[in-house]
Structure prediction request, 91 residues.
Amino acid sequence: MTACLIPDAAVTTWRDLAALLTDQTTPCQADPEPWFAHDPSTRAVAGRACQSCPSRVFAACGTYAQAAREPWGVWAGVDRGLRTSKKRAAA
Prediction:
């Protein structure tokens, strides 16, 4: 693990995403709260806003979330909290 708690397997994907975000502002950068809200309907709105991101940013975001096994938040339009809840319910 790195000092910032990003799993080693995800460091490269995090850097790739960060490099893409230096040149532009995405909806989640402007106001990150909805992407990590406790209210599922708020996260759903955030997920739809992901559709406005450039395709390279959208893809890098999803790749990072998968590599890091992000347990919460909306990443590339996917509600990771909802996925975690469904996995727990199925177990």
The CA atoms of residues 32 and 46 lie 9 Å apart. Residues 8-90 form one domain. The longest strand covers residues 74-75. The chain has one domain: 8-90.
